[in-house]
Design a protein that fits this description.
The protein is mainly beta and about 180 residues long. It has one helix at about 30-35; strands at about 5, 40-45, 50, 55, 65, 75-80, 90, 100, 105, 115-120, 130, 135-140, 140, 155, 160, 180. It is globular.
């Protein structure tokens, strides 16, 4: 388990080092791409805006993306350029479970077809945990039903602003364990 720090102002993807807060990554994608071991942490240390041209691809189980910038603000993940596509990919590098998103602002494209996660048809959402996040301008949480049959998915103390879409914001599989608490939807 390692920690990969991110700071848009002070960081450099070329000289960043695992577990060294004095050598952060400049881009969120650069740090997440290095989180290839179970329980790796990507910690954003500023309140900058991180613009995505490609999805964030999760490459290991139990990865946490969090921030320690300030209790007054949070970093922004700007996925406006993603159009009608997903922001975070849980499938392209294999089935990934246990993703934790904490304290993030995620801005979608306003396209009703755009979703937060590409989950596909597996149990990628097993153990998914979203806390203290503000996620808006997205069509729905996932491109498929959230299926998590062995571990409860938890969404707490978060706000979601969905675009007008004929499907629900949270489509949950029949055998899924899911908890939503203290949220604004």
């Amino acid at each position: 388990m390692g920690t990969f720090y991110v700071n848009r102002t002070a960081g450099s993807d070329g000289t960043a080092a695992e577990n060294d807060i004095s050598k952060p990554f400049r881009t969120l994608t650069g740090a997440v791409d290095q989180a290839t071991d179970s329980a790796d942490i990507v910690e954003i240390t500023d309140e900058a805006t991180y613009t995505l041209s490609n999805p964030i691809t999760i490459r290991a189980n139990n990865v946490t993306i969090t921030h320690t910038a300030s209790h007054l603000g949070r970093p922004v993940i700007d996925a406006v350029s993603r159009g009608n596509s997903h922001v975070i990919n849980l499938t392209d590098s294999g089935t990934r479970t246990g993703l934790v998103l904490n304290g993030l602002e995620i801005k979608g494209s306003r396209d009703p077809a755009g979703e937060l996660f590409k989950v596909n048809f597996s149990n990628n959402s097993d153990g998914l945990k979203i806390t203290d996040c503000f996620i808006y301008n997205i069509g729905c949480i996932s491109d498929r039903y959230l299926d998590g049959t062995t571990t409860t998915m938890i969404v707490s103390q978060s706000s979601f602003m969905f675009e007008d879409r004929s499907l629900g914001g949270f489509a949950v599989g029949a055998n899924t364990k899911f908890e939503i608490s203290n949220c604004f939807l």
